[in-house]
Specification:
Layout (H helix, E strand, L loop, with lengths): L4 H9 L9 E3 L7 E2 L5 E11 L10 H18 L3 E11 L4 H17 L3 E9 L3 E11 L14 E5 L4 H9 L9 H12 L5 H6 L4 E6 L4 H12 L2 E5 L7 H6 L4 H10 L6 E5 L4 H8 L6 E8 L3 E6 L2 E2 L16
Parallel strand pairs: 4-5, 9-12
Antiparallel strand pairs: 1-2, 3-6, 4-6, 7-10, 7-11, 8-10, 9-11, 12-13
Length: 329
């Protein structure tokens, strides 16, 4: 039985994975030591998940672990980076082995799937939170950024949009009366278990002009590309990819589904821009990924984001997720 911080580390986090060849020293010292190949950059991202903000305290710990790591892997995917190493800072109210066991099993199962090794971190007592720092490798000059979109580029997203927000609404029980149990289970699982698009990010190197992952809602995140690239972007709401489950959740109200798709955070799909001359290259590059992708808009001269429907401007007042704004549409 784990009795203290060091027991937790030894029992749950040490020797749970095969050692990567590029890890010289992992858990057990003050720092980890890793080897970085020549002609590669290290992509680094840090995210925190806090009980009461990103998940309910009584949520399944296996799903919490998956969500925590998947959201960070998505950041690497958005840069076209291949996952390599991760550090975990875990804050726990008490030592709860019934919680730790499924959390760690899920965490290492996903980590091993993407060949990312836990190389260090911290455990401490306090309100439940998880902070991960992930590091990945990307060839020099090939990282995807938000600043490369060009006038005339097409705007794409992977997967479907809106399921995460629908799942969250069901978790919070605000829409439970409108949803049967099977549909609710599917959408709740999609909220917690988004698929990080690592293989897509790798395939987009040299093809996409700009990219990011959708963590705050496509309507908010696309604005980051427009701002960093100093362009305008039009989104055609009729082209938004909507799942059958989202439409069922919305009672087949397509406009409501479109609005949810635009504002849904924690989707962790990729949004990226590609020159029209690269359309064939894009199709060929993504053919092996088995990931659906859809063209939802166009990069234009100017600044900002516009919503269109049948080429007519929309005036929907929508916003994405912001941790420091109490209400988000």
């Amino acid at each position: 039985m784990a009795k203290n911080e060091f027991d937790i580390i030894k029992h749950y986090f040490t020797q749970q994975q095969p050692q990567r060849d590029d890890v010289a020293l992992a858990i057990g010292d003050d720092c980890a030591l890793v080897d970085v190949p020549s002609n590669y950059h290290v992509a680094v991202s840090t995210d925190s998940l806090v009980a009461g903000t990103h998940f309910l305290v009584d949520a399944d710990p296996a799903w919490i672990a998956y969500k925590a790591l998947a959201s960070n892997l998505s950041d690497l995917a958005a840069m076209g980076a291949t996952p390599a190493w991760v550090s975990l800072a875990l804050t726990l109210p008490t030592i709860d082995e019934a919680w730790l066991a499924p959390f760690c099993h899920s965490f290492f199962e996903l980590a091993n799937k993407y060949n990312i090794q836990l190389i260090g971190g911290d455990t401490t007592k306090g309100p439940l939170s998880i902070t991960l720092t992930v590091q990945g490798l990307v060839p020099r000059g090939q990282a995807l950024t938000r600043s490369g979109a060009q006038v005339g580029d097409d705007v794409y997203v992977t997967g479907n949009l809106g399921d995460s927000a629908a799942g969250l609404a069901l978790i919070l029980q605000s829409q439970q009366q409108h949803c049967d149990d099977n549909l609710a289970a599917i959408l709740i699982e999609r909220h917690f278990k988004a698929q990080p698009r690592v293989n897509v990010g790798e395939a987009l190197r040299g093809i996409a002009s700009a990219a990011l992952d959708i963590s705050d809602g496509v309507i908010a995140d696309v604005k980051h590309i427009a701002e960093r690239s100093q362009v305008a972007i039009d989104i055609d709401v009729e082209q938004l990819p909507l799942s059958a489950e989202l439409l069922a959740f919305c009672g087949e109200d397509r406009q409501r589904a479109q609005q949810i798709a635009l504002t849904s955070g924690e989707e962790y799909e990729l949004c990226f821009t590609v020159a029209t001359a690269n359309r064939d290259a894009l199709e060929k590059a993504l053919a092996h990924t088995n990931v659906k992708y859809s063209c939802i808009g166009k990069v234009k001269a100017g600044r900002g984001l516009s919503l269109l429907q049948l080429d007519e401007p929309l005036t929907w007042q929508l916003s994405g997720w912001d941790h420091f704004v109490e209400t988000n549409n």
